[in-house]
Amino acid sequence: MSFDLTADQHMLIDNARRYFVDEFRPLERRMDEEAWMPPDAFRRLGEMGFLGITIPESHGGSGLGYLTAGLILEALAEANPSIAWSAVAHGNLCLDNIHRNADDEQRARFVPGLCSGELIGGLAMTEPGAGSDAIGSMATRAVRDGDDYVINGSKTFISNGPIANVLLLYAKTDPAAGSRGVSAFIVETDTPGFTVARKLDKMGWRGSPLGELVFDDMRVPARNRLGAENGGIRVMMSGLDVERAISAPLSTGTARRALELSIDYAQNRRQFGAPIASFQLIQAKIADMYMRLEAARALMMRTLSAFDAMDDPGDAGRGEVHMLAAAAVHEAARAASFVMDEAAQIHGGNSYMQDTEINRLYRTAKIMEIAAGTQEIRKLIVAGELLK
Q1: In the prediction, which pLDDT does 314 show?
Q2: Ranges 28-32, 62-66, 282-286: which has the least confidence
Q3: How confident is the model at residue 133 (pLDDT cuts 50, 70, 90)?
Q4: Which residues of 91-121 are buried (b: 16+ CB within 10 A; e: fewer)?
Q5: All domains of the chain, ordered by start, with CATH?
Q6: Active-site residues: which are they?
């Protein structure tokens, strides 16, 4: 499979990288120290066409493929990991999934605003008692009452939760039916009964708001149901695969930045009368970092290309792309953790100082071995597909 990009794609990605470095990298330290998100970040991303990358132009997006979207997100993660993750939670976990599964009326109401950054989106799936077992342990209920559903429950670890206007929410509509009793809803957070219980304090991605949300007799119009009643499992599973595929660039992007910083540090840090880059053990670390990273990037690009080749990305959630998505995010996360460990060794004591960029990257990388399904769940998916 060829990953050759067109001249236009190269130009777009290079321009995006320069824009992100100029506009967002200078904000990265403050975002980490203050757990602060620039209030205009989504609007600026929307103006540049970086929120609805995979959405057709007719609906306000850029009309590009998943491979291009992934490489743009990788560039954003190199410049500012917190904004990159919030952009994924908005543009993929919410916007892309809504667009793929919505009817024309729902698309007209929500998609243009999400593409422009006028609306901020998020995914409300994880619950205090429902993480890896997101379906079986789901307790949030949606009960039909006339033209509405009444939703009660709570969600936690919700990226963009404290600032979102629109959430893609999953709730049990028929608890006795197990996985066949889940429905998906587009929830507007200005609806009575919705509250942000608290904003959560994190080790990394500190500028990306994370929250615990509560739904107390919140009435959601039936027209906001995404797909058929009790048909949420298809929406969820295809969305999780696209999420895994498009999340892998977050790991490779932060790892690329850590490698860049490590090379620069090794060339300028002098010990025993010479730059540490002249020591073979340091050279071996840099070589290993590069090779692990590029191997993970190759799998990531193959996976994103496979999604571009699908007739309907809504068919994800099974088969080869299901396996590829899990493998890609697993290897990207593992490569990033390896690169961060070696980068910390190269930077020595400086890596342990919380105000250094390499320390912030180190703290950020770990989450990708946990978020979007743990490394263990990813291995189960790969093995399950291979053993069928």
Answers
A1: 64
A2: 62-66
A3: confident
A4: bbbbbbbbbbbbeeebbebbbbbbbbbebbb
A5: 7-120 (1.10.540.10), 123-226 (2.40.110.10), 232-386 (1.20.140.10)
A6: 243
